[in-house]
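TEACHING EXERCISE
Course module: macromolecular assemblies
Task: Read the component lines below, then compare them to the predicted structure of the full complex.
Student: A.B.
Group: 4
Components provided:
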Amino acid sequence: MSNKNIGIKDVAVAAGVSVTTVSHVLNEVSYARISSETRDKVKTAAEELGYGPNRLAQALRTQRTGMLGLVSEEIATTPHAGRIILGADEAAKARGYNLMIINTPGSASLESRQADVQALLERRVDGILYATMYHRNVELPENLGSVPSVLVDSVAIGGNITAVVPDEDGGARAAVGALLDAGHTRIAFLNNTDDVPATRQRLQAFRAMLTEAGLDGDAAPVESEISEVQGGYEAAKRILSRDDRAHMPTALFCYNDRMAMGAYRAAAELGLSIPADLSVVGFDDQELIAANLYPGLTTVALPHYEMGAWATEHLIDAIEGKDDLSLMALHPTILGCPLVSRESVAAPR
Amino acid sequence: MSNKNIGIKDVAVAAGVSVTTVSHVLNEVSYARISSETRDKVKTAAEELGYGPNRLAQALRTQRTGMLGLVSEEIATTPHAGRIILGADEAAKARGYNLMIINTPGSASLESRQADVQALLERRVDGILYATMYHRNVELPENLGSVPSVLVDSVAIGGNITAVVPDEDGGARAAVGALLDAGHTRIAFLNNTDDVPATRQRLQAFRAMLTEAGLDGDAAPVESEISEVQGGYEAAKRILSRDDRAHMPTALFCYNDRMAMGAYRAAAELGLSIPADLSVVGFDDQELIAANLYPGLTTVALPHYEMGAWATEHLIDAIEGKDDLSLMALHPTILGCPLVSRESVAAPR
DNA sequence: GTTCTTGTTGCTCATCCGACTCCCACGTCC
DNA sequence: GGACGTGGGAGTCGGATGAGCAACAAGAAC
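Instructor-supplied answer key:
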């Protein structure tokens, strides 16, 4: 490797001009008046030497690193984090920024989160994205406030900081709507037991949709279990095993795809065929599950990619002064959860 | 926020000493002779002001950023990338380093990869981890050579660069061994159609294990399909639907968990119960599938977390001069794939 | 007992890392 | 002698670091 540490100085020497001129040319400084001959000489020299600016020195001087910090929970255990990162990364790259990712356990203490943010601050990131692994309310480290920041998939407790979250209500309505449209009137909800916004909002939307359709939303059956495959299996089994065959639900709205996967097994064991005997819709659109179950699971997609991209886009706007985050901080921005239709919904018998 | 931009200079003024002294104290420079009184004054002042060093300035001077670049393919579409990142992140954090992650499509051109590496180089990362989403041979951007680098889950084409890969042979042997130990003598292999190391090595190990067990390894049935759920379903269906019931396999070794998931469905459709009528083992240990299928899938785990950690550990050793990568570059390091037993294997009827 | 080395201890000065940028110095041509 | 058109000098960002200086003590020389 010959190209060890080529600086602006080397380019200057090669082109026979001063470093000032090189800087002017390469940064296309507007007020610099330089002949096109000189420009060419400089550009050619830079090219030939394989010059790339030292971003550290540049950042030190300009007070801009072109880096965004991303604090993300549980990078490995949920595919959701991956999609947020992807959305953020692509949006950042498109605007010339790079990401510094810090992973943190969902259970991390406030001090530990603060240390994570501190690490980002010491590296002088231009802004910070703070992402959680599921939609919830978080207590934020206070040092977050010292640079522009945006929350992804969560809102701050008592906080006025810009945030973007999924439209739980709309998503749940789309899911239940798909079942209603297919003609179902006896629909059950397999809910989660955690006390998170999604649990409450989806339940509320579920009942509201039924009521608005002229059914008795308040009486519709709801079974809660932990939101895993096993929980879905148990909840479905309870609902589908009731004596009263005539009033048994013909459709299941599941809190997430994992629970839906459990419901599939319960249905199989009870000799119920999907979608002929039972329609199912999930939530999350986890590729691995939803697309690979048989029959394919109709579900609602969480806009993780979109939230990551939206947050990044607006964070950069704020950094560049094109946008004012404090105006948007009043209410979280809500992004849609579109229905993804596959084969698990049909008209009731 | 009062603590805007506190520099070493501010600490120096507050403590009534020079910046040199502050630097000496805070970095615990061994040759610096400073009274403990002065040390205390400096530390107290730094504490009170909430001073944190500007890592950019530090890095510019010391030529050390304490950052590692990680080029990872397809961050969002495979959980494997997440585990590599997690392993790398934890190992890095433990040694005081941070990660800069660049995501790149698996299909990216060589120039595009080169640009990714260039971005990392301009930020003066101390070393680079280059990770692929599945075990394969890659053509590397040449600028990768200008800082210490380690490949994760791949080896360089014609290249002598340190790499760490999974033990395909050992993993496949463990999988087939589990079936053999359970007493199976008629075992089939559902293989992948891609031309990657895993495809060849697992097939070879499969045949070798059978032969070593006194069976006719060369004659054992193998069906190849794309390594997805659908492919597994089709391959399993072909194998399990043959006329010759007496010679039908009693156990299936699947190229990965997704194909195993397809095999489960094929078995269900044919009225075969797992593991009573048919034993199945997979490969990958994708939590979402392996632990959630019913019955739980016995499979072999890929050491993604471990590869990420190993690579990081040795990369840092090389950066700090404790290790010489070129010595390890001769042969890729191989990490074990342990068997994860669940409930899909039993003795044949 | 005073004055000089010689040595420590304790801390500071000046410079540097690599790029950006304000301000000034030339010619030339009207 | 202004007004351009071209280009360079030197300071700056924030911290690291080798060289050097002042103060004081112990031992040596007178």
